[in-house]
Structure formats: structure tokens, C-alpha cells
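Session log. Operator J.P. requested a structure for one protein chain; no other inputs attached. Running the standard single-chain path with C-alpha cell output.
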Amino acid sequence: MSRITQTYQRTLSGSIGSGLGSVFGGSGKQYYILEHKISSRYHKAGETQEIIVNEIEMGRGEGCQVRFDESFSTVSRRHAAIVKEGDKWKLIQLSNTNPTLLNGNEVNREWYLQNGDEIQLAIGGPRLGFIIPAGKTMGSIGLTRRLNLFANQALRPYKWAIALLGIALILAIGGLSTWKYLSDKKAKEKIAIIEAAAKAREAEAKAQYKKFQAEQDSIANALKNTKTELSDATERLQKAQDDLKRSFQTNPTPPINDHQVSIGSVKTDNKAIETCLPYVYFVYTSAVDIIYPNGNRESFEDFNITGTGFLLDDGRFITARHVIEPWFFVRSETDSIRYAMNIIANNGGKIIVYFNALSSSGDRFSFTNEQMVCNRSHDSSGVTDDGYRYVIGRLDNTDWAYCKTNRPNGLTANKAQSTTLERGTELTILGFPFGLGANSANDINPVLSKATTSMPGLNSGVILTTSTTFEPGNSGGPVFYTDSSGKLIVIGIVSAGAGRSTGSIVPIASVY
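Structure written below.
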């Protein structure tokens, strides 16, 4: 066997790139197993690690995918690496002070590995068995397991400081973008991911709830302080009701119809809703292209994102930015795929998502994220410990995106009304929560949801709601109020939820 002389360098494509390929396109790819033969703080003797990326490092450093504790003093911080070359793997010596042994022989620089080889980090140091599982490929590892391996192996060298992610607003915690795998056999794994995200949103929403509770307590105290005035007002009201009853008995009047004014708006009937349905679209991806900083390109057809969009009468198709560019709205390192996409997109790479939009009328069109107009003025950025740039978007009044179409008809919007709604205005929402209502390309039927404005006007640029029933998948959908004629008028875009009933809506005025 000839000695290899190429110089090793850690790469994004070798870790993140190959990891993404293993998660979403690895059914026929080979992997290997490392068996620990000595117990350490991080691994017990006999424990195995499935390796699904093309390059890993071993040592005592925090960035090493195979890590050993400080008791192994002869193991360097970055001691050795295993890198894939073609259809083979090679062992690379990294340490300048301590040797690496392969089957008892010192590795001068780099050597190819064979099934059954034993790797030892330093003389007397920890030993690892190198195993290529016979007849097994990446497809034999479940999706959830592959996602966990991806996070531990592809992302470990590029971990961000968790404190930097805490700068996102509480509304960002409740982002409603939905990731939906359209294959039934993956449904259980999708549900598990959704449930985990829901628990995180609920925990972070406590501060929002406390603020709302304080407002309720303030109202209750005000009512107590005005008990006498309320009592007098109640007596006057009762007298007025008695007078009104006597008047009705003398001069009967027709009953009030279903379009009478409620609080801040008019009740909505099904006819008004039916008029709007053709302009509400189910949004989903057909493919994602990832172009790595080195120019390599990979396509993933199983990588799906869903949401809602709508067409205005000026020909613009509108949705939420976090539906179009979800990788900019990373909330924690558990969002490992979006974390990786963020790193790639902001360090010389590119993410291209191909979307389809389907309407109940049968109308269908396609677009990409690169065709959308967005507002990135509120984005924040930083640099990871390894020098990679990242960007975090905010779920505030910049959470919108639109593209121009040649369609002549659409929904009517009122930008002035969107900033001046009264407290208690009843709102109507149409969309596809959890993908419901989008049964097939020939069966698109938006789902009705409701919300009520919780304070007058805007709060930090957005419309806050209570009694909110929109869910993940409603993101990007239209929000209506009902005018005096009973017509539904667009005043906002579904953005985010916090807790069980509080929501955030981007006023349509933000798009103009």
C-alpha cells in the first residue's frame, strides 16, 4: 500500500454537505461504525458510534466528533481524523506531539482503513475498532436517528454560542413555519418534531402570558374601584331595557339579521368567505438545491416546507418570509438542518427552494425564493467560534415576502385600516394548518380560523391577537376584517403564535 501525501483540511462539504446527503438522500450510501474498546467519560467500552459524514476528528477538543476526556493526557486536542476518499476511508495523523497507531503500527501521515482495523490514539491511549457493516447502507438507519447523528457529527465543529440565539424576540419563539414530509411512512417522525417544537414555544410564551395576565389584573382592579358607578349604570341599563321591552310590545320590529355589527366589525357569512377562497393558495416545495461554498451542488426532492399564500387584486402573491426562507429563523441548535443551511447561505453558498402554489379554483403556478421581494432590514448577524457568518431574521413587521404575477384578479386590501383596528375586532383567517385542506392537487379547500385583536392599533409594528386559532401551516395566509357591507378585506398576514391563544399578524401596510 502506497503512502498518501495529500494535506487534510476541514471542509463544510465534508461535514455539513455529506451529512445533509445522508439525511435526505442516503438510502444507498455506505457508513461505518467505531467501536470503543476502552471506557471514558463520554463512551463506555463496547459502545459503538455510527458515522454518517465524510470527515470526523478525534481528540480531546470540543469540536471533535469522537471526543475523549482530560484523563487521556496523551491524546491531543485534535489528534487524528477519518476522511472519505472515493469509496474508501483513510486515517490521518493530526497531532504534532503524540502518535496515532493502526493495528499497532505508527501512522507517519495517512493510511487507508480496512474493515476490522484497530485505531489507537497515542501509545497506551484509547483504542477504537473500525467496522464496515456488511450489507447495510444509510437507509437502514431511521430518519430520527440520522437527524441526531447529523447534529452531533456535521454540526459539532461549527456550533454557535447559544447565548447569541437568545436575542430573538418572544414572537420569534412562536414561528409558525411548518416542515412536512409528504410520505406517510415518515408521519410519526414529523409529529414528534412538531410536538417538541410546540413544547418549546409553550415554555417561552410564559413571559407573554404573564404580561397579558397583568393587564387583566389591572382591568379587574379598575372594576373594583368603580363598583358604585357600575352599580348605578346597571340600574340605568335595566330601566332602559324595561322601557325598550314595553316599546317593542307596543310597536314590534323585525329581528336583527346576521350581518349586524359585533365588536369592531361585522359578522361574516359563508358567501363572503366563498368569494375569497379562489385567491388563497397552499404553498409547498417540490425541490431544494443547495450550492456549497466550493461550488458543489446537491438537490433534495424529499425536503418539504408548507405554508399559505394569497393573491391581491394588484397581481402580487404574498406569503410570510419565514415560509420562503426558514433557515434565517433558527431558534435553537435542535433545528439542525436549518442551522446548516444558514451557515451555507451566509458563507459563499446558496439555497434555492422551488415552490408550488395551488388554489381551490385549480389555478397553479411555481416560483423560487430568489424571485421573492423581502425586507431584511431587521436581520441580525454574527460570527461563530470557527469564523463562519450567520444571520437571524425576526418575526416582526418584516415577516413578509411577495412576487409579481400576471393574474388580473385577487383579494382587496386596506393598508390604512390595518394599522388602526380597534380592540376586540373579530378577524377571519384562511389557510392550511398542519396541511389540512390540501388533500391533493385536485382537492384544495382552505380551512377557516379566527382571532380577535387584543389591543388597538399596532404593538411594535404588528397586530396582536387573542382567542387565536391559527396553527403551523397558516403562516403566510391572509387575515381579514369584515367591512360594513359584509365584504372580507385583507388587513394582514399570519406571522407567529406564542402560547395557546396569542398571535402576531403583520399589517398589510408593511408590504406597501
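Operator note: Residues 34 and 321 are 42 Å apart (CA to CA).
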